[in-house]
Specification:
The complex is a heterodimer of chains A (517) and B (693). Chain A is α+β, with helices and mostly antiparallel strands. Helices cover 28% and strands 24% of the residues of chain A. Chain A has eleven helices and 20 strands. In chain A, the strands form four sheets. A seven-stranded antiparallel sheet of chain A has the order 2-1-5-4-3-6-7, with helices on both faces. A five-stranded antiparallel sheet of chain A has the order 14-15-20-17-18, with helices on one face. In chain A, α1 runs antiparallel to α5. In chain A, 62% of the residues are buried. Chain B has 693 residues and is of the alpha+beta class. Chain B folds into five domains: 113 residues, Nucleotidyltransferase, domain 5, CATH 3.30.420; 139 residues, 3-Layer(aba) Sandwich (Rossmann fold); 88 residues, no CATH class; 113 residues, Dna Ligase, domain 1, CATH 3.30.1490; 63 residues, no CATH class. Helices cover 31% and strands 27% of the residues of chain B. In chain B, the strands form nine sheets. In chain B, strands 13, 14, 15, 20, 23, 24, 31, 34 and 35 form a nine-stranded mixed sheet that branches. In chain B, strands 3-2-1-4-11-12 form a six-stranded mixed sheet, sandwiched between helices. In chain B, strands 6-5-9-10 form a four-stranded parallel sheet, with helices on both faces. Chain B starts with a strand and ends with a strand. The chains are: A alpha+beta (517), B alpha+beta (693). The interface between A and B is large, with 76 and 54 residues.
């Protein structure tokens, strides 16, 4: 085939699908070669291919919405910091800076330039949640990022195929899980190599000198479709606000969605100022959550790429919890970011009542354990728990389903094998979904007991303990979440040490209902 | 093998194919009969009777009976299984409904998890706990267990899955439960997770066991009845079942774990493709089996279909990965596309022509069936394009209402602003693109090149669509085996019989007790040889392969590695590691630095060739064949309709070579060859069509 654009519809579709399957194949490879349950059981990673300018082309199908939007920003940062002229075949770049990556240090982003005939043509990139990155392991108690772990500025991990051994030595010394952290990094590199090989084959097969024409074509198609969907929303300014658990005081969230023709602006003026607790959400993550909400409501069927992001404008006051300044702590940014889609939906509900969902029993919950294992080695382990989804005008909310993230639980049998926790139960919280014509999804209850001779450090990430997921159009609220230690309410914002025989009970929140029952 | 004849049975959603194969002559006697859904054995027995009496074949000389079916997978998709309950460890009955909590589709707010086959009201918990090390923490409460089963039975439950935590490491509680329930509630079908899928990860194991329970009563009733009726016909050979992975299983094993039969029909198709394509496809074949509702494609390298170790049944969103019920069984790797003769064509919201994935099925069926179907389907388009012969549909056994087909297609054409011919070609072409597109992705994911594969077409629709699908994929050759419409059933009888056994070892290679390790392989091999003998073949002629599921310590997934032959001593270790590393690099491009290796499962695959003659076409004529008729076929490369000769396949002698366009009719399928196809009848009876590139 020749290289003239525009592509015929069939060729375009074939190249597009093969790019997506390259990202899917890399995702499968990363998962299957990794060493931490964060990646191989919880699926806390994503793979993306961008064009030579760092604009997203495709992502793996079952990925994490926030990463899909943040990853291209990190690739653009590599271009700026390292410089296109210093990029060579065989390089791999690495970064975990929350302000240009995914919002906290735990996610490590790597990218590999793909060259064609000596010219930079694309990047293969992935983000994966490291089993440990050192520091206070996401404790919300941290005030500054310096307490939160090992900071990796944009740098070369591989230079023309040569690994930076000093870096590997350093990172191993910073973390509680050196073998797993390093092993997962190698798994990420394996995924990048695979995407590089597949993209190179594809370009050769279709005689594509670069991916510019292809990128413009698919990004243009996605952008036009998104603009058309936005144009169908009645012009106007739609506001919403709510409060969330916060600390001594609730945190306030406020947004105004302004629709003007085929453009949408989402502005967070009025939202709480940043606080010296690790729940501040960097702007890259804020943008990701807004774009995810808008795409889900307006254009669920079209493949995601940079064309979708181009149509949206998000503004947030600097120094707010949704656009914090350095060097404030950000480890638990999802505890803020995951509220944002519900806020956007609440604002749009009056004009798009048949397109939006009631609030979910999210943000995502987690517990991070640290301690000394039976063999006397340090360990860290993260487990995730989802609540119920919000109801829709057409159906009830799904129970225990990850939204807006996309993170799996770790099987009970693996938790018991890998950590000193014994699990007494994992069950649905019956009746925890908000009432409604369509009820909200149910949360879950899990009961754990420590079997460790030495105390286990426990850090919770648990939201909606005070402010429930709201319903829409008269639907009821979902049940509040609950965190208990030895059957007594525990302070989920504090760090705990769990002694032998002590139990934790987690009850994740239900989703809001839709329509008055 | 002493017996002259074998009997192959392949039950699909619409048709049941029956083939008796004469190994001494290489001849096949085939019947296609309608599947009898209320009691599938009736259709089978009628069909077998017809074949035996029409061709005067002696039932007593049938030495092998091999069976494949999609009945059980269809029952799961259509939710027509037994009323199923679940008994779990105290505190964990909701694991089945909670699942893994991860969405299979990111942007669809109306996403739905597949509803559990055992609803909450039919899920019970009993005290008893094994820990991760396999130690008993709490003894099993047998009386509570029996009470739970009795109360489920009183609620109308017919079949129960029993899944206890950590049973993959210590099955004592599940085994005890199995014995107690067999005694206390003998009418209740019981599925123990340790007997169905003894693997770590409670959700996946529960899901697999519950699917097993869901189809178990159906499978037991049907298979017992079939075995009994076959014996009643005087067929003494035992019934052998094709499993999803292409291996064979015996009746009792199949009744215990029918979940292993879910993909048995497609597996038979892939095996047939591999076997028939071995000569003319140079070992690299894309097996393409197209029926009434779906098309299946599977990649065959070195005459071996690929095996996958993760599978999903009954996808919620039909073709979306991750939306189904996870099943931990091995299956032949294949893709299924919602494109078949019954696929319905319509205009979508963007005004574009769309075909499938929904199907008109057999009732009302395509408009041309004249049973009330008004929407145009792929079959209707195929009639209008001249590809199918209204006088000879399903071997002349069905009346075709051409007028109804014309009206249905014309109405769609009017909406789309197309001529009826353009609309008919559009329907055919879009169905082809759906299949070719899915195949491209499937092939691309494996890093292969479609141009290096021959398209091997089987099923009622495969030969009809192969020419244009091959053009889209860039395949340079099409192979159509004799009796292509019933090739899966023939494949059951002539493909090598394979038996697989697996056992869990879970040990680091550095710490392995090599004597015990070798003994476990030897035990698996002995078991497999016994089963091969039971299939009517000679184990002494069989080949034995050793495989293992291997990973680096700390990983969660294994790579299935083909190992050097045994017996093993400590000296075998470097060879095993080298085999693992080579497989790992091939799959993942690189190995991690200095991590120890562990073996989780060991596997053995024993296969035996079927001796005797290859199948041949029933050629009646010699010399240059004459066409039966001419008809007008639409070929876009000729910009319109072309007068095309129509041959009866039985008139084409081996060695006959001809240039397209041509139509070759046989009783269960029609082969379309376009103007740029060069065809010949190969010595082995295949029709081989080479395409100009």
């Amino acid at each position: 085939m020749t290289t003239t654009a525009p592509f015929d519809a069939v060729t375009l579709e074939v190249i597009w699908r093969r790019m997506i399957s390259a990202a899917d194949e890399a995702a499968k490879t990363l998962q299957r070669t990794s060493f931490s349950t964060l990646v191989n059981e919880s699926n806390d990673f994503a793979c993306v291919i961008t064009d030579a300018d760092g604009h997203s082309l495709v992502q793996n199908t079952e990925s994490i919405p926030s990463f899909n939007s943040c990853l291209p920003v990190t690739v653009q940062h590599f271009l700026k910091e390292i410089g296109r002229e210093n990029m060579n075949p065989g390089d791999v770049y690495i970064c975990n800076d929350p302000w240009v990556a995914t919002g906290h240090l735990n996610d490590v982003t790597v990218a590999k330039p793909i060259f064609s005939n000596g010219k930079l043509a694309a990047f293969a990139a992935s983000t994966a949640h490291a089993p440990d990155i050192g520091g206070k392991v996401r404790s919300v108690v941290a005030k500054e990022i310096f307490e939160e772990g090992f900071q990796i500025p944009a740098m070369k991990l591989l230079d023309r195929g040569e690994v930076d051994r000093t870096f590997i030595k350093l990172i191993r010394a910073q973390v509680r899980t050196p073998d797993q952290t390093e092993g997962d990094l190698w798994a990420q590199l394996t995924g990048l190599a695979l995407m590089e090989a597949r993209v190179a084959d594809l370009m050769a097969e279709y005689s594509l000198p670069d991916l510019t024409a292809f990128g413009e074509e698919i990004q243009g198609r996605s952008e036009r479709a998104m603009r058309a969907a936005m144009a169908a929303v009645p012009d106007g300014r739609y506001e919403a606000s709510f409060d969330t658990d916060g600390f001594d005081h609730p945190l306030h969230y406020q947004c105004a969605v302004t629709v003007t023709g085929d453009r949408i602006n989402v502005d967070f003026t009025g939202t709480s100022e940043q606080i010296p607790k690790a729940i501040n959400c960097t702007f890259t993550y804020t943008f990701a959550m807004v774009s995810y909400a808008l795409k889900s409501a307006l254009l669920p069927d079209v493949p995601n790429n940079d064309g979708i992001f181009r149509c949206m404008e998000v503004t947030a006051p600097e120094g707010s919890i949704v656009n914090p300044r350095r060097p404030v702590s950000v480890g638990g940014r999802m505890a803020t970011g995951h509220y944002l889609p519900a806020l956007v939906f609440q604002a749009l509900a009056p004009v798009l009542p048949d397109k939006v969902m009631a609030a979910c029993g999210s943000p995502l919950w987690s517990i991070v354990q640290t301690g000394i294992d039976k063999r006397g080695r340090t360990y860290a382990n993260t487990l995730f728990f989802n609540g119920g989804m919000g109801a829709l005008p057409t159906k009830p909310g799904e129970s225990c389903y990850s939204w807006p993230s996309n993170i799996s639980n770790v099987p009970v049998e693996l938790v018991e094998r890998n950590t000193p926790l014994f699990i007494h139960s994992k069950s649905l919280r019956e009746g925890s979904g908000g009432t409604g014509v369509h009820p909200g999804g149910e949360g879950q209850e899990m009961v754990f007991e420590s079997e460790s001779e030495t105390p286990v450090g426990i850090i919770f990430m648990a939201e909606r303990l005070k402010f429930a997921a709201k319903g829409l159009e008269g639907g009821g609220e979902g049940a509040l979440g609950e965190v208990l230690i030895d059957n007594k309410p525990a302070d989920a914002r504090a760090d705990h040490a769990l002694n032998l025989g002590q139990t934790i009970t987690l009850r994740t929140p239900g989703g809001g209902g839709y329509g008055k029952a | 093998m002493t017996a002259r004849y074998s009997l192959g049975i392949d039950i699909g959603g619409t048709f049941t194919d029956i083939v008796v194969f004469d190994h001494t002559q290489g001849r096949q006697f085939a019947r296609k009969v309608l599947t009898t859904h209320t009691d599938p054995a009736t259709g089978v027995i009628d069909g077998v009777r017809q074949v035996l009496s029409a061709d005067e074949l002696p039932a007593t000389e049938i030495g092998r009976v091999v069976h494949a079916t999609t009945l059980f997978t269809n029952a799961t998709i259509e939710r027509k299984g037994a009323a199923t309950g679940l008994i779990t460890t105290d505190g964990f009955r909701d694991v089945l409904e909670i699942g893994r909590e991860r969405k299979y589709e990111l942007y669809d707010l109306a996403i739905a998890k597949p509803a559990p086959l055992a609803p909450r009201g039919w899920r019970r918990e009993v005290a008893g706990r094994i820990d991760a090390e396999g130690k008993e923490r709490v003894p099993l409460d047998l009386s509570a267990l029996v009470d739970a089963a009795k109360s489920l039975q009183a609620d109308g439950v017919q079949s129960v899955a029993v899944v206890f935590l950590h049973s993959y490491t210590n099955p004592a509680h599940e085994r005890a439960a199995g014995l107690a329930l067999a005694e206390a509630v003998p009418d209740l079908a019981i599925s123990l997770s340790v007997e169905v899928a003894p693997e770590i990860r409670e959700y996946e194991r529960t899901s697999t066991t519950v699917v097993n329970a869901y189809i178990k009563p159906l499978a037991a009733t049907y298979l017992d009845r079939l075995a009994e009726e076959l014996a009643g016909l005087g067929i003494a050979a035992p019934l052998q079942l094709m499993l999803s992975n292409g291996g064979l299983g015996a009746l009792e094993q199949a009744k215990q774990a029918p979940v292993a039969l879910l993909e048995s029909g497609p597996a038979a198709g892939a095996l047939a493709g591999a076997w028939f394509g071995a000569n003319d496809g140079d070992g690299h074949v894309l097996a393409f089996d197209m029926g009434g509702t779906t098309a299946k494609l599977s990649l065959v390298d070195d005459a071996q279909p690929l095996i996958a170790y993760d599978f999903e049944a009954a996808r919620q969103k039909r073709f979306a990965h991750g939306s189904g019920l996870p099943i931990k069984i091995s299956t032949i790797e294949l893709i299924e596309i919602g494109a078949g003769g019954g696929s319905i064509a319509r205009l979508n919201a963007l005004g574009l022509l769309q075909v499938g994935p929904d199907s008109a099925g057999s009732e009302p069926g395509p408009a041309c069936y004249g049973l009330g179907g008004e929407q145009p389907t792929v079959t209707d388009a195929n009639f209008l394009l001249g590809y199918l012969n209204p006088e000879f549909f399903a071997g002349g056994s069905m009346d075709v209402d051409m007028q109804a087909a014309r009206i249905a297609v014309a109405s769609l054409a009017a909406q789309a602003g197309l001529s009826p011919e353009q609309a008919a070609w559009g329907i055919h072409d879009i169905a082809n693109e759906a299949m070719a597109g899915a195949a491209r992705v499937h092939i691309a994911e494996r890093g292969k090149d479609p141009r290096k594969y021959a398209l091997l077409a089987t099923g009622g629709g495969g030969p009809l669509h192969a020419y244009h699908v091959a053009q889209k994929l860039g395949c340079r050759r099409i192979i159509v085996p004799p009796a292509a419409g019933v090739a899966s059933a023939v494949g059951l009888l002539i493909a090598p019989a394979r038996v697989d056994r697996v056992a869990t070892v879970a040990a680091e290679l550095d710490l392995l007790d090599w004597t015990a390790f070798e003994a476990r392989y030897a035990a698996l091999e002995a078991e497999a040889h016994t089963l091969i003998a039971a299939t009517g073949l000679d184990p002494a002629q069989a080949t034995t392969e050793r495989l293992a599921d291997v990973r680096y310590v700390g990983q969660a997934f294994e790579v299935v590695v083909s190992l050097p032959p045994g017996p093993y001593t400590k000296a075998a270790k470097p060879g095993l590691i080298a085999a693992f590393e080579a497989a790992y690099v091939e799959k993942f491009t690189r190995t991690p630095p200095a991590v120890p290796v562990e073996i989780i499962n060991i596997r053995t695959a024993v296969s035996a060739e079927v001796p005797g003659e290859r199948p041949r076409s029933a050629v009646t004529a010699t010399g240059d064949p004459k066409p039966n008729a001419q008809r007008s076929l639409y070929f876009p490369e000729a910009n319109g309709f072309v007068e095309t000769p129509v041959f009866d396949r039985a008139d084409l002698p081996a060695g006959y070579a001809f240039q397209g366009p041509a139509v070759i009719e046989e009783s269960a399928s029609t082969l379309i060859i376009g103007p740029s196809g060069k065809a010949r009848v190969a010595a082995d009876g295949n029709i081989v069509v080479d395409l100009e590139s």
